[in-house]
Design a protein that fits this description.
single chain; 8 strands; mainly beta
Length: 191
């Protein structure tokens, strides 16, 4: 599967970059802004994907979701440093024999995140990397056992990218260990 996916992703990436470089100057280039994230910008992104396993108790592939807000605060070289909150969850369940859906592991996370955003001089493209820290509320149960509730530390790291198809709307993908291991979704530029 990897032999098919990796060349496909490279091909798609090259076609997007070729398309972006072959375009005439857009209005964002005329104004000097190529990266959507600037000091003073506010982004909100939401996505779904594969959930992170904070306690090693997931069964099968966990489902995850995350909503995050980022505020462009400081210029740092060619990029912008952002800070903001994030909230989300990772949920898994499994079965053993006749006990369908009898194992459950759920973690709900509230955290803060910081990232460095860089646009590569491609209009509409925003790439970033960052880290998060917060608290997780973990619940685990299985058949015959009501489960346990724990408050756990939730640290994460991530890389991601957004491509804006309109000045205030784009698509987003993020990977790492930060509520989700991989997610896709949408991003809105509020300011």
């Amino acid at each position: 599967m990897k032999k098919v996916v990796v060349p496909f992703v490279i091909l798609i990436s090259l076609s997007f970059s070729q398309h972006a470089f072959s375009q005439n100057k857009s209005s964002s280039q005329m104004s000097g802004e190529t990266s959507p994230m600037q000091v003073g910008s506010v982004f909100v992104n939401a996505g779904i994907g594969i959930g992170a396993d904070y306690k090693g108790e997931s069964y099968g592939t966990a489902f995850g979701f995350k909503i995050a807000a980022e505020f462009g605060l400081w210029q740092a070289g060619p990029g912008v440093i952002t800070l903001g909150p994030e909230i989300g969850g990772s949920f898994s369940s499994g079965a053993y024999g006749v006990y369908s859906g009898s194992y459950n592991s759920n973690t709900f996370v509230i955290a803060g995140r910081g990232a460095w955003h860089f646009g590569w001089n491609v209009p509409g493209l925003d790439t970033y990397a960052g880290a998060s820290a917060g608290v997780g509320f973990h619940h685990y149960s299985y058949y015959g056992y009501d489960g346990s509730n724990q408050v756990i530390p939730a640290f994460g790291g991530f890389i991601g990218g957004s491509y804006f198809i309109k000045p205030n709307f784009g698509f987003n993908a993020e990977a790492g260990f930060d509520i989700t291991n991989f997610q896709v979704g949408v991003v809105l530029k509020i300011q």
